[in-house]
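thread from #wetlab-drylab

HS: before we spend reagent money on co-crystallization trials with L-homoserine, can we at least see a predicted complex? here's what I'd submit
DV: go for it
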Amino acid sequence: MKAINVGLIGIGTVGGGTFTVLQRNAEEITRRAGRPIRITVVADKNLELAQKITGGQVTGGQVSNGKCRITDDAFSVVNDPEVDIVVELIGGYGVAKELVLKAIANGKHVVTANKALLATHGNEIFKAAQDRGVMVAFEAAVAGGIPIIKALREGLTANRIEWIAGIINGTTNFILSEMRDKGLSFDTVLKEAQRLGYAEADPTFDIEGVDAAHKITILSALAFGIPMQFDKAYIEGISKLDAIDIKYAEQLGYRIKLLGITKRTPEGVELRVHPTLIPSKRLIANVEGAMNAVLVQGDAVGATLYYGKGAGAEPTASAVIADLVDVTRMHTADPEHRVPHLAFQPNAMADLKILTMDEVQTSYYLRLRVADKPGVLADITRILADEQISIDAVIQKEPGEGETQTDLIMLTHQTREKRINAAIAKIEALGVVAGKVTKLRLEELGK
Ligand code: HSE
């Protein structure tokens, strides 16, 4: 049967992995897809790298290996009449957006790993694809090799999704695991992670939670059938996390993970990324190092957990190629019979509001530096009671040798963020409380 032709834009880590796995497993993949999937053109600024990976030869400024054309002009790929599917692996929102929209306008299907692009411009891109009758597939955009997009778009389609909580950034999970294991500070572990290649030279998007926010924005849209609303996500990273809180959390039976959380509530949808205490006994609390995991609560199925590598050449290629096979199978199908891009029919999207952080309800961990004398705890608990905040647990540390102050750690039951903030402002104004109160959010991740 006639091969389907793929134009690959970007042959870095994931592009290289895609090329390699497609070649290595060509026979199996063809048996699954029903026809060969052939990369006919590769675009990359680094022609030498492209030549090395594809084994091509340079001829007249272009490289060719007889099967696959190599170019540094990505637009020649999206304009190539021979290409059926464009794989965009360059990332970012600039040229990548232009290339994706041009490919769609030219009637080509698109496979992309670009979470930043989809979280910020996905609504425009999916609308363009819908109008043109082409598919935009993005399994590799969230949690690398874990088929979480497939699970949400198809496997869990019977369910009313209630919430999703995910460890969807490997860099930060690696850092948090190291901080806990070795009792080291954030800065020390970050440097080590950069040395080992786990963290980028500029790690901002990862450590400040932006990458996780892109991913949870995409999962939220799929779970609830709402547009992408990255601009409404609450984002807090791990760069200010103190190792002492990891230690205290552990003593209370919790681990701290950077979670992407999205939850349906009667008032609207919660969409947030922040360091979160979760009970150590939960499976997801034991996801260590650079691994990813996503926990999905559906009304019929209950909790399901998806675990695996969230990055890397071949794990991410696994997701890219799964999309290529899907698109190949559905290429000739009537667009109406394909799985909708965001799991829900485009004319049946919900208009649910994304809640501000003030409106979010969760539990809290508070760490206070207080004078060790009578009445202090009473003053603090009075303030919490006035804000209708119920206390779940309190521990007071022994003051150090010769110290008159000590650490007080409190866990609260669920309350609204605006209530805890109001209480914290009053607590910080007490003369017996030194400095700022450390506030972390806590999720039981039970039902
Ligand atoms: N930078 C991401 C991470 C991988 O650390 O998980 C790509 O999404």
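DV: Residues 148-309 form a domain with the Dihydrodipicolinate Reductase; domain 2 fold (CATH 3.30.360.10).
HS: ok that's useful, forwarding to the group
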